[in-house]
Amino acid sequence: MPKPPTIAIVDDDEGVRASLASLVRSLGYQARTYGSGPEFLRDGVSEQPACMISDVQMPAMTGDRLQEVLLSAGVRFPIIFMTAFPTEDVRRKVLANGAYRFLTKPSDGDTLIRCIEDALAEPA
């Protein structure tokens, strides 16, 4: 039986990480959670996630900066950004750099589920 896809969750809010991980697991996927971009990068990308859900506003490294670091390393997978502080500049920037979606917090579960499933259905 194939291993279920892994979704990486990067958010500095522990409650958000826990609720997103619970949602991801309820869909039958594996979840790996990280409190910051540097924590995700330290974990290494030897086993690249199938998809990432990332906050934008985080103290150690913003989500858009994490995206830039991954792209410069040649690492590409769908990234769903979520933020409570949306700006048009950041939205444009992350989407231009290949982000899968840009959502405003709080986002409802159905929207997140649809985004995750659509991202995983996209050809690699």
From TrEMBL:
Do you know which Gene3D superfamilies this protein is assigned to?
3.40.50.2300
Q: Name one Pfam family in it.
A: Response_reg
Q: Which UniProt keywords apply?
A: Phosphoprotein
Outline the extent of the Response regulatory domain.
6-120
Say if the entry is tagged with keyword Phosphoprotein: yes
Q: Name one GO biological process term.
A: phosphorelay signal transduction system
Q: Which residues carry this modification: 4-aspartylphosphate?
A: 55
Q: Which InterPro entries match?
A: Bact_response_regulator, CheY-like_superfamily, Sig_transdc_resp-reg_receiver
Q: Which named protein is this?
A: FixJ family two-component response regulator
- Organism of this sequence: Hansschlegelia beijingensis
